[in-house]
Write a structure and sequence with these properties.
Belongs to the TRAPPC13 family. By secondary structure, the chain is mainly beta. It contains five helices and 32 strands. The strands form eight sheets. Strands 5, 7, 8, 9, 11 and 12 form a six-stranded mixed sheet that branches. Strands 15, 17, 19, 20 and 21 form a five-stranded antiparallel sheet that branches.
């Protein structure tokens, strides 16, 4: 707990009050570090690290250590303090006597934490005060949050020298200056109604920063996030989850793990928090984002820049919790052509000089009806160089495609060369707008002999 003081307005300063507020912040203590001189074991001075290289000396080591430990026992009658630098127990070398220290000030308050305060209103006069109405609220630049209000049930009385205590909590969700305002309306010993305001100011800082980079690779979006610790204590990240926007799915990408399935299940059940060290420690995360459904009706969604947001929870060294939610992460919308051609299915086995069917999907990415269409295989290569050709009619006629919709069809092809071959040059022609769409779609197939 840490004490704090405050001051009221000019009127409050001119009026003598029987009551006064005292505010103590409730937070986790810190580990006390012993600042006494470093202690050591005399054996560390007598024996070097190469002692175990000599088998004879190593065999006599237990006897030497036992004799040395017996001689290092502190004699209460010895007032020379000759043994004050000697270790009496192995844990003394840590410099941690096992004590916890309560904070002596408000300390640093960070966004995402819960501000908890113990407030005591003291009657320092020699008279009893009655009908005490107490209010406590947090004021920020944007809003005023009421934490306590006893207007409906005032404190009946506070005796001379007595006090009334209460605890308030507030989830810190804003950065910058905050003011804890404590007020009391009471009747003093002279039956005079008085009003006491006191203010306790503190500043909320950002514990972490989240820097992101977005890259688009064809239909896949990659999101890289770097989390940096700005506090003076280590942060243990319990949860760093990316919540994708509607119609998106997110997969976290991690390094390959060669551990057994049993160890993997145990690790998922007992998830170890990720440590981000104090004073600028960082941790990087990589996510792969894709549309959750290839339904063409969602093409409007793909133009949105909102990818999602992060939910981050952590704990400090002694378990003090914190939680943050970032703003929406924005990315570059995936640009699409008016007409796109996608592969739906290719036969797993393709035999030389035997026809096979390739299923394709023609997608209309505009808000208007397009078509009818004609589809053919371009003849940029000579007949001798072409490995895959159309079987049958060289031009396939398709009907209209509604706005943000698609049309599935099949092409009959035949391969005249063995091995790995490439299907390319599929051209789509709009017979109404007289516009040709050169498809960049390329497929690789393996052609086997009969």
């Amino acid at each position: 707990m840490s004490g704090g003081g405050g001051s009221g307005g000019a009127a409050a300063q001119q009026t003598a009050h029987s009551l006064a507020f005292r505010v103590m912040r409730l937070c986790r203590p810190t580990v006390h570090v012993d600042i006494s001189p470093l202690k050591f074991d005399p054996c560390d001075l007598l024996f070097g690290e190469d002692l175990f290289d000599d088998p004879i000396a190593a065999s006599n080591l237990p006897r030497l250590l036992s004799s040395q430990s017996n001689s290092s026992v502190v004699d209460p009658s010895d007032l020379s303090y000759r043994s004050r630098y000697l270790l009496q127990h192995p844990t003394e070398s840590l410099g941690l006597p096992g004590l916890l220290v309560l904070p002596q000030s408000f300390g640093a308050i960070y966004l995402g934490e819960t501000f908890c305060s113990y407030i005591s209103i003291n009657n320092s006069s020699s008279f009893e005060v009655r009908d005490v109405v107490i209010k406590a609220e947090i004021q920020t630049e944007r809003q005023r949050i009421l934490l306590l209000d006893t207007s409906k049930s005032p404190v009946e009385s506070i005796r001379a020298g007595g006090r009334y205590d209460f605890i308030v909590e507030h989830d810190v969700k804003e950065l910058g200056a905050h003011t804890l305002v404590c007020t009391a309306l009471y009747t003093d010993g002279e039956s005079e109604r008085k009003y006491l305001p006191q203010f306790f100011k503190f500043v909320v800082s950002n514990p972490i920063s989240v820097r992101t980079k977005v890259r688009n690779v064809k239909d896949t979006t990659f999101l890289e996030a770097c989390i940096e610790n700005h506090t003076k204590s280590n942060l243990y990240m319990d949860q760093v989850d990316f919540e994708p926007a509607q119609h998106w799915t997110a997969t976290v990408l991690k390094a390959a793990d060669n551990s057994s399935e049993h160890n993997s299940l145990t690790r998922d059940t007992l998830k170890e928090p990720i440590l981000i060290r104090s004073g600028g420690g960082i941790c990087n995360y990589l996510y792969q984002l894709k549309l959750s459904s290839p339904d063409p009706a969602q093409l409007k969604v793909e133009g949105s820049k909102i990818l999602g947001k992060f939910q981050i929870t952590w704990r400090t060294n002694l378990g003090e919790p914190g939680r943050l939610q970032t703003q929406h992460i924005l990315g570059n919308p995936i640009t699409r052509k008016e007409i796109e051609l996608h592969v739906v299915e290719i036969p797993p086995v393709i035999i030389l000089e035997k026809s096979f069917m390739v299923s394709l999907n023609l997608v209309n990415s505009t808000d208007r009806v397009l078509g009818p269409f004609e589809v053919w295989l371009s003849e940029s290569d000579s007949l001798d160089e072409r490995a895959v050709m159309v079987n049958g009619l060289q031009t396939t006629t398709l009907g209209e495609v509604q706005a943000y919709n698609s049309l599935k069809f099949q092409l009959s092809l035949i391969s005249v060369q063995l091995g790995i071959q490439k299907i390319s040059g599929i051209t789509v022609f709009d017979t109404i707008e007289k516009k040709t769409y050169d498809s960049v779609l390329e497929m690789e197939i393996y052609v086997d002999s009969d």
